[in-house]
Amino acid sequence: MTVTQASPELPSIDASELLKELALKPSPLMVIKPLLARIQAESHHYFRATLDATTLIHRRANIMDTLLQCLWQHLQLPQQGFALIAVGGYGRGQLHPHSDIDLLLLAQQEEQIHVSSDQLQSFITLLWDLKLDIGHSVRTLSECVQEAEKDLTVITNLMESRLLIGDTELHQQLLRHTAADKIWPTAQFFNAKWEEIQLRHRKHKDTEHNLEPCVKNSRGSLRDIQTISWVTMRHFGQGSLQALEDNGFLTHFEHQQLRKSEHFLWQVRYALHMLAGREEDRLLFDLQREIARLLGFEDDGNLLGVEQFMSRFYRKQLATMELCDLLLLHFHDDVMRADVRQVIEPLNQHFVFSDGYLKLLTHDLFAQDPSWLLRVFVMMAQYPSAKGIHANTIRALRDHRHLIDDQFRSNRQHNELFMQLMRNNSCVVRELSRMMRYGILGRYIPEFGSIIGMMEHDLYHVYTVNEHSMRMARLLRHFRFAELREQYPLASRLIHRVPKKEILYLTALLHDTGKSHEGDHCANSEEIAVQFCRQHNLRPTDSHLVAWLVANHLLMSNAAQRLDLNNPEDIHQFALEVGDQQHLDHLYLISVADVVTTNPKLWTPWRAEQMNDLYTNTLAALRRGLGNPMNKDDVIDEIQQEALEQLRLQGLTDEQILTIWGEPGDDYFLREGADNIIWHTLMIHAHGQNPAPLIALRQTSSHEFEGATQLFIFMKDQPNLFAITTATLDQLNINIQDARIMTSEKEHNAVDTYIILDEANRPIDDPKRIEHIRSTLETALSTPSQRPNIIQRRTPRALKQFPVATKVTISNDPLMLRTIVEVVAADRPGLLARVGAILSDFNAQLQGAKILTEGERVSDIFFIVDEDGNPFSDAQICQRLCTAITQGLDEQIEAQSAV
């Protein structure tokens, strides 16, 4: 026998039964509290079973209506001269689990409020005792009108008001006195709402809101759809989507698209409230995975379920933004200004600028000649002062974008039009963004269409893939402008050397298109770029450069992190990979733009200096010739001679200088360079015979917008020096970017350099803080037996939501005769200090470290040798070291996550 499971029923209450029960019980709380608990439980059960938020939020509002009406009657509140009115979202007849229940207690006269004040207070107190999320106001009719006249929020709430119980005529008077012919006429209301939406969009445009978007207030969210309803309701008297279609303001397609977006956003918002147990409208990281599972998104071979869910969310957001922009523009141009004489500027037989907006005159133009689907944007790029595209043109573009198929894409004329846009002197990214928003770009480049809305679920990538690509192209364009010259001095010079800037813009568009396929996204994107360049008939040299840049867009940023930038061998190897100055110039520009627009917080002053040093040193190697690499001994000799000359000018003798230097080893001169060696020597000379550790700090660069703070430590070497230093710096809330650790061969002096930034990743220039760092380190290093504890500090909420498996890799560098330990782990306070302690336990001598934090993960590299100065060669010891670091960091991460 087949048993069919009954569909869950919507919650409901019976008004007459509720009134009877209220009459029987000594307190309404005894009746209403269990009733609310039942309704909440039945609502959540219904939602989990059906995922139907639309029906549910209207039913919940209906139930709340009944409950409030019954309480009003039970408490015998007056129904003449008084009205209980639902406003706001509740007034729209929508109620999510923890949404505010906004109420207006309206009286005809002030005297009536005084007479019934005790009853009204009892009613409000009862609602509070029931733990309902009540927002209420008690006003007379005249007070309401006065408030509405001066407050946009008040008039908006009143427009959607519903009478729950009380004086019907009083509510009608309120509606008449606040109608558009009395206060807030349509034009004034629209302009205020337009300004409001612009302010809200700017507020929700930052990275925090992008990673954890607000379902209610972000761009393309519920508030945008509601704004359409409000402005049209103010004009037409009706604002429902169905009424707008019936009146011809919305097309059937637009109505369906907005309805689908609204239902999806309601679904997400209901899930947020239910899972958070509070009014939570932001898609917080700790809720994104739960909601994805609840809504049926599962991991597949390429994307996590949460990434698929967020991609759906961002695509809905983009579609809603497109429609709302179109409809607000349509309302402004074709409704509000229908009787206003417009400024018409003819362009050609098909288009005019109407008050600055490109308006289509030939309604079947795109059907007759589909090339205009691209030509529109080429034409717009030639008019920088154009305000935008008219609503009727946007609708025509949308209705004909299906014409962009394989045949369209392979048409040589269309390919030439696209490249004409890419080569335009102005507005390239503005028009590419419009093409993306109106669904043209994703159809013309299907691989780009596949990454629209794609979000990588981590803290490293703070934008969707398509948004990152657009921002990258825009930054490459802006490198040309004077306002970025101080922030990006090298990029601002190099951009003017690039003769074909479209190569950079194409690279930005295509470099991440391979992320929609399984496997290495760089290799996938390279294949897409090769096909695109071939299809668009680029010259072989240009095609090769675009494909090479796409394939190697991570090469330079990775090299700046991994290589010893002052080592001629490392630089020579990198120069061999780059090949020539043309590739180097293009790669530098692409690398900077990619890092900055992946996550602006990653572009620290120190990272900027590393990239600049890598560029400068590689350029020198290329100019010298790849067949003529610089001899290491010659480099060391040049550095020593330059330092000697400068130090002599400072009054030091050669004997004093050479005594101070001792025999620190070749690496010291290669890594530090003449400038640092001069500084170190002067500091040691001034320190004299002082037995205390020498601690000195200064800026690493004279550039105003680049550099970091350099910390120099000189003292007799001792065990755990790195562990003590890093633990102390961690306690001081200092971020270590780089470490160069050396011990002189005969004198056994530690000559250590750390590159540090403050907690905001900025250089440290406050003299008081510098002195505090110096004195704290001096005390810690003077008393090594009192080794500081590894710090316990609260881990930010967002970091806890992204588990990163600890991975340790150990290998030997035969060229530099050292062991390389690479560590990938979750970012937590105290990790460096823990690694330092473990290395000390294995008698490992640390020669250097490179530190990189990318979102929720750290990717650190340590260069070590054994106690005899040789690479670690025993496989068993290496395995034990690997295991010890893995276990130690896992323990540290677990302990920190619990703080």
Would you kindly provide a written description of the structure presented here, covering whatever features stand out?
With 899 residues, the chain is α+β, with helices and mostly antiparallel strands. Helix content is 56%, strand content 11%. The protein starts with 14 loop residues before the first helix and ends with a helix. It is globular. α22 packs antiparallel against α25. Strands 9, 10, 11, 12, 13, 14, 15, 16 and 17 form a nine-stranded antiparallel beta sheet that branches.
Keywords:
41 helices, 899 residues, nine-stranded antiparallel β-sheet, alpha+beta, four-stranded mixed β-sheet, globular
End-to-end gap: 56 Å
The percent range for helix content is: 55-70%
- Radius of gyration, Cα only, in angstroms? 34 Å
Characterize the biggest β-sheet: 9 strands, antiparallel
Provide the structure class: alpha+beta
Which stretches are poorly predicted, pLDDT < 50 over at least 5 residues?
none
Helical region count?
A: 41
Structure summary, number of beta strands: 17
- Categorize the overall geometry: globular
Strand content: 5-15%
What's the pLDDT, averaged over the residues?
Answer: 89
List the helices and strands and how they pair.
Layout: H1 15-24, H2 28-50, H3 53-74, E1 82-86, H4 88-91, E2 101-107, H5 110-115, H6 117-129, E3 134-140, H7 141-150, H8 152-159, E4 162-166, H9 168-177, H10 186-203, H11 207-211, H12 222-236, H13 241-246, H14 252-276, H15 285-294, H16 305-336, E5 344-346, E6 351-354, E7 357-360, H17 365-368, H18 372-381, E8 388-389, H19 391-400, H20 406-409, H21 412-422, H22 428-437, H23 441-444, H24 446-451, H25 465-478, H26 489-494, H27 502-510, H28 521-535, H29 540-551, H30 555-562, H31 568-578, H32 581-598, H33 605-624, H34 632-649, H35 654-661, H36 666-687, E9 694-699, E10 709-716, H37 721-731, E11 735-740, E12 749-757, H38 767-782, H39 797-800, E13 807-813, E14 818-826, H40 831-841, E15 845-850, E16 853-854, E17 857-865, H41 875-897
Parallel strand pairs: 2-3, 7-8
Antiparallel strand pairs: 1-2, 1-4, 5-6, 6-7, 9-10, 10-12, 11-12, 11-15, 13-14, 14-17, 15-17, 16-17
Helix pairs in contact: 1-3, 2-3, 7-8, 10-12, 12-16, 14-15, 14-16, 15-16, 16-19, 18-21, 18-22, 22-25, 25-27, 25-32, 27-29, 28-29, 30-33, 31-33, 32-33, 34-36, 37-38, 37-40, 40-41
